[in-house]
Amino acid sequence: MLQPGLMMDRPLLLSSVIEHAAAQYGDAEVVSRETHGPLFRYTYSECAARARKLANALAGLGLQGGDAVGSIAWNNHRHLEAYYAVSGSGMVMHTCNPRLHPQQLIYIINHAEDRVVLFDATFAPLVKGIAAHCPNVRTWVCLADAANTPAIEGVANVLAYEELIAPCSEDFTWPEFDEHTGAALCYTSGTTGNPKGALYSHRAIVLNAMSGCLPGVLSLSPAETILPVVPMFHINAWCIPYAAPIAGAKLVLPGPRLDGQSLYELMESEAVTVSAGVPTIWQALLGHVEQHGLRFSTMYRTAVGGSAMPQALIAKFMDTYGVEVRHGWGMTETTAVGTMGTLMPKAKNWTSEQKQALLAKQGKSTFGVEIKVVDEQGNTLPRDGTSQGELMVRGHWIMASYYKGERSPLVDGWFPTGDIATIDAEGVMQIRDRTKDVIKTGGEWISSIDLESAAVAHPAVAMAAVIGVKHPKWDERPLLFVVRKPGQTLSKEEILAFLAERVAKWWVPDDVIFLDALPVGGTGKVQKSDLRKQYGGVFS
Ligand code: AMP
Fold first, then answer.
1. What is the C-alpha separation between 381 and 374, in angstroms, rounded?
2. Which of 83, 180, 386, 441 has the fewest CB atoms within 10 Å distance of its CB?
3. DSSP string covering 75-89, please?
4. Domain at 370-394+411-435, CATH class
């Protein structure tokens, strides 16, 4: 007979994360860029006290366990307090992506049944446009003091956060409940149909955040200062706002200033050691650093993900600036990081190019997540690094069903990601494409990611995107979009010749369109759907 373990049964709750930080790393700092400009700084102990004040304030507004509180906000300290106050009270923290279309924002706020919405002043015009269509929202709270809370014409119930919490007590007893209770809700930024909600449990977030602290993932400790540029409005900023307090790391929140210069200055002034962001943000950061001949004096590691990190960018970080790159993969449905690429000890004697080629892949699944790739019939494909199929995941922080969803998306207990990937014998996964982005030509597949990565390696190319365009003979053929670096000239013939040396002949795009900018969505990903709409006609 199996023996029951004789351990205490303490639920994994988010309230315990901030109380742990307050008790054990009470003087570790949180630095936050206010929406109106200045830097604000305090400690985890003060953060916990203000989270308790907010918990009292929300109760005072009549909210109770199970109610949803929305946020339309940057990465800042008040948003952080809300992360803990809302979830810690047993309510659901619904982070809204401000870059969704207003109709989709209205849809998700109503679908989630948000009772209160917290917003940054930047988004006051957005609130003005949607408030009348969100009948469940009783109160709109601006994450600011009274002086920085704008009056919003036509929206009566707007409160200033500081006025709301000022009269409330710092004493609040966090309720204890089942660790499987919903803590945070994030909707997909899907380009077709309505967004779908992933409701993360306390347990899923705590386990993911603990895994994020591991040396092979973000490697957090009290010695580190981490700057998450990945947004708190999308997939919990990869759970860094939970992982940093668990580890006692100093947390730096950049607010609305996400341009290269502002990020660089913040990294330098706050002695940031580790950062996390999407490739487009890092491209802008390196653009600034290069243009001004700067160096990073403290930052030595960056985690990147959200879309594929081109090898050329990895090379620049590592070889030119001595910054270690960790390349991760995850999606709304996976709470945060599912896989992370890092160099194993045997890579010590590899050439730079070998190291970068490995880091251009999305790495190994972290403990708590299992991965496999399957063919169209659902058969598991070999881990040989070349057999590609749909990536399937399962684990402690992988979604089982969509919020209020009718049908389970799972296939034999695994979540189908819609990504096409390979896994090699050592377990290293590489995303080859999205199922909808891969280019099918003459019965073969071309990876748009590989082509983009090859194009970005050209010194005159700032950004590149590839879509499949219908072709009467080949089914689809690749069309390349290029944004040149400022002041650079580059012709179609030059970039095609450059690619011809690097990819198979039949991969070379049929045409090149030069643009001033690529359409980028709310989470920093190139919106290929927009490119397809505009340019996805037919090649003759
Ligand atoms: P989202 O749910 O909006 O965060 O999008 C998740 C999707 O982003 C994944 O399914 C992948 O298609 C893509 N993605 C995330 N990380 C990476 C990465 N490191 N490389 C390539 N694609 C990625």
1. 5
2. 386
3. B-HHHHHHHHHHHHT
4. mainly beta
- Kindly report the pTM of this predicted structure: 0.92
Convert the pLDDT of each residue in 348-383 to its tens digit.
999 999 999 999 999 999 999 999 999 999 999 999
Reply yes or no on domain 439-535 having CATH 3.30.2160.10. Answer: no
Spans of all domains in the chain = 27-345, 370-394+411-435, 439-535
Q: Is 217 exposed, middle or buried (0-12, 13-18, 19+ CB in 10 A)?
A: buried
Sequence-distant (6+) residues with CB within 8 A of 109 are 70, 94, 96, 117, 130, 134, 136, 137
Give residue 291 CA to ligand 1 midpoint distance, Å: 29
Residue 36 C-alpha to ligand 1 middle, in angstroms? Answer: 31
Q: How do residues 218-241 score in pLDDT, each as one tens digit? A: 999 999 999 999 999 999 999 999
Query: Would you please indicate which residues are annotated as catalytic (active-site) residues?
Result: 188, 333, 440, 445
Q: Which amino acid is at 126?
A: L
Overall average pLDDT of the 109-119 stretch = 98
Ligand 1 pocket member 313 (CB < 6 A): no
Looking at ligand 1, which atom is closest to the CA of residue 235? 4
How far, in Å, from the CA of 331 to the mean position of ligand 1? 5
Distance set, CA 406 to CA 114, 196, 217, 409 (Å): 21, 11, 34, 9
Three-class SS of 358-378: HHCCCEEECCCEEEEEECCCC
Beta-carbon contacts of 371 under 8 Å, excluding residues fewer than 6 positions away, are: 338, 339, 365, 391, 392, 393, 421, 423, 427, 429
CATH pick for 27-345 out of 3.40.50.12780, 3.40.50.10540, 2.60.40.420, 3.40.50.1460: 3.40.50.12780
The answer to whether 447 touches 468, Cβ cutoff 8 Å, is no
